[in-house]
Amino acid sequence: MPVKILITDDHPLIREGLRYTLGGERSLDIVGEAENGLEAVNFVRNCDVDVVLLDISMPVLNGVDACKIIKQEKPWVKIIALTVHNEDECLFDMIEAGASAYLLKDTSHDILIQAIWDTVRGGAFIPPNFATKVLAELSRLSRSVKTTGGFLGLTRREIEILGLLVQGCTNQEIATRLFICEQTVKNHLTRIFAKLNVPNRTQAALYAKKYRLLDI
C-alpha cells in the first residue's frame, strides 16, 4: 500500500514543487493539499492520511498548533515539518508538538524521501545540523531538571514565559519579546497556572521563586 501524504503550505508554488518532487515515487500517494493548518486538521479528520508535510508559518492556524491537534486526535499520523526557519525555537516547538522530522524547504529529494520512510517505520529524522542542537538542548534540560527537581511538565516555551513573568513583564511585553501574539501568551499562562496549580500570575511567580524552577 502506498504511503498516503497530505501536503500543507500556504504557498501554491511550494505545494506544486512538493507534488513534482514526490510524484515520481510509486510508493507514495499524494492524497490532498491544504493551504493552512486548519485545512490540514480537517482533512486528516475526514480522510485516511499517513504522513502530513506541514509548513510552520501559515495563516488561520500555524503548523505548531495544527501538529498538536493532529497528534492528539490521530497520534499514528506522522508529521514532517517543512520550513524556511533555521531557528532553534521553531525546531523545539515542533518537536514538543509531536513532529517526527524537521526539514528545511531546500532539502534535497533524497533526504525528503528518507525522512518520510524513517517516520513511517516509526523512527524520527533530524538532519545533522539540527541533531547537534537537539542533543545540546537535551543536555541543558537534563542539567536543569537535576537543579530544579523537574519542570512539572512545563514546555520550553512555558518556561521562557514563566521567566519573563517573574521579571514582572506584562502579557504585551512578553508577546513583544518572544515575537508572538498576546492571545498566545494568555493561552500559555492558562496552561502554566494549571500545571503549577496556582490561580494567577502572582502565585505563579511566587511558586517559581519558592521552588527555584528557573535556577538553571
Outline the structure in words.
- This protein is α/β, with parallel strands linked by helices and 216 residues long.
- The protein folds into 2 domains: 129 residues, Rossmann fold, CATH 3.40.50; 62 residues, Orthogonal Bundle (Arc Repressor Mutant, subunit A), CATH 1.10.10.10.
- The protein is built from 10 helices and 5 strands.
- Strands 2-1-3-4-5 form a 5-stranded parallel beta sheet, sandwiched between helices.
- β4, α4 and β5 form a beta-alpha-beta unit.
- α2 runs parallel beside α3 and α8 crosses α9.
- The chain is elongated and about 60 Å long.
What's this entry about, in short?
The chain is an alpha/beta fold and 216 residues long. The chain has helices spanning 12-23, 37-46, 63-73, 88-97, 109-120, 128-148, 156-166, 171-178, 182-196, 201-210, and strands spanning 3-8, 28-34, 51-55, 78-83, 101-104.
List keywords for this structure.
single chain; 216 residues; alpha/beta; Arc Repressor Mutant, subunit A; 5-stranded parallel beta sheet; 10 helices
Which whole number gives the mean pLDDT? 83
Number of strands: 5
Regions with little confidence, pLDDT below 50 for 5+ residues:
145-150
- Give Rg in angstroms: 19 Å
In CATH, what is the homologous superfamily of the largest domain? Response regulator
CATH architecture label name of the largest domain: 3-Layer(aba) Sandwich
